[in-house]
C-alpha cells in the first residue's frame, strides 16, 4: 500500500511540474527526461533535477527517496532511447551510470549545488545511481 501511495503522489507531482512548465524545483534546475517503457512501450516523461557537466547532464536515480529504482533508469538500462528537454529544446540521449572517483566527485557536486541527495541515500538500502545523460551522435 505504501508503494502505491508513493507512486501516485510522484505521478501527480510530475504532472503538476509538466503542466505548469516549471523549470526549477527545490532550488535546482529541471529537465524533462522521456524514455520508452521497457514493458509497455509507452513514452514516460519524468522531471529531474540536474547538474550540467560539459556536454552532458548528471542526474541521480533517487526516485524521491524510495527504496526501489525509478522506472526511467530501468528503462535506460534496458536500452530504451531517451530524450532530454530543457527550455523547449529536445536532445536524444543515452544514460550511463558513473562510478569510481568520478562518481564521488559528481556526488559531492550534486549534493552541494543541486539537492541534498545524501538525505535520500540514508533512507534507502540501495546505492543511488549517479547517471550521465549524454547526447546521442546524429
List keywords for this structure.
138 residues, alpha+beta, Pnp Oxidase, Chain A, F420H2_quin_Rdtase, Nitroreductase family deazaflavin-dependent oxidoreductase
Task: Describe, in plain words, how this protein is organized in 3D.
The chain has 138 residues and is an alpha+beta fold. It has a single domain (2-135), classed as Pnp Oxidase, Chain A (Roll), CATH 2.30.110.10. 34% of the residues lie in helices and 34% in strands. Strands 1, 2, 3, 4, 5, 6, 7 and 8 form an eight-stranded antiparallel β-sheet that branches.
Total count of helical runs of at least 4 residues: 4
Q: State the end-to-end CA separation.
A: 44 Å
The geometry reads as: globular
| Helix vs. strand class | alpha+beta
- The CATH superfamily bears the name Electron Transport, Fmn-binding Protein, Chain A
Low-confidence stretches: 5-9
Task: Please trace the helix and strand order, writing H or E for each element.
Answer: HEEEEEHEEHHE
Number of strands: 8
Q: Hey, roughly how much beta strand do the residues contain?
A: 25-35%
- Name the quaternary structure: single chain
| Total separate domains | 1
Largest sheet: 8 strands, antiparallel
Structure at a glance:
The chain has 138 residues and is an alpha+beta fold.
Would you spell out the secondary-structure blueprint of this structure?
Blueprint: H1 2-20, E1 24-25, E2 28-36, E3 43-49, E4 51-53, E5 56-60, H2 71-77, E6 82-86, E7 89-98, H3 100-113, H4 117-123, E8 130-135
Pfam families: F420H2_quin_red (PF04075)
Protein name: Nitroreductase family deazaflavin-dependent oxidoreductase
Catalytic activity: oxidized coenzyme F420-(gamma-L-Glu)(n) + a quinol + H(+) = reduced coenzyme F420-(gamma-L-Glu)(n) + a quinone
Amino acid at each position: 500500500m505504501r508503494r502505491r501511495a508513493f507512486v501516485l503522489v510522484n505521478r501527480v507531482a510530475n504532472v503538476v511540474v509538466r503542466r505548469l512548465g516549471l523549470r526549477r524545483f527545490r532550488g535546482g534546475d529541471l529537465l524533462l527526461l522521456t524514455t520508452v517503457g521497457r514493458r509497455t512501450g509507452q513514452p514516460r516523461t519524468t522531471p529531474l533535477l540536474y547538474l550540467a557537466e560539459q556536454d552532458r547532464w548528471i542526474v541521480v536515480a533517487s526516485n524521491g527517496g524510495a527504496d526501489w529504482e525509478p522506472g526511467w533508469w530501468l528503462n535506460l538500462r534496458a536500452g530504451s532511447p531517451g530524450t532530454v528537454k530543457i527550455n523547449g529544446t529536445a536532445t536524444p540521449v543515452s544514460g550511463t551510470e558513473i562510478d569510481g572517483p568520478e562518481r564521488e566527485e559528481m556526488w559531492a557536486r550534486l549534493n552541494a549545488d543541486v539537492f541534498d541527495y545524501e538525505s535520500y541515500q540514508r533512507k534507502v538500502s540501495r546505492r543511488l545511481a549517479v547517471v550521465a545523460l549524454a547526447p546521442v551522435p546524429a
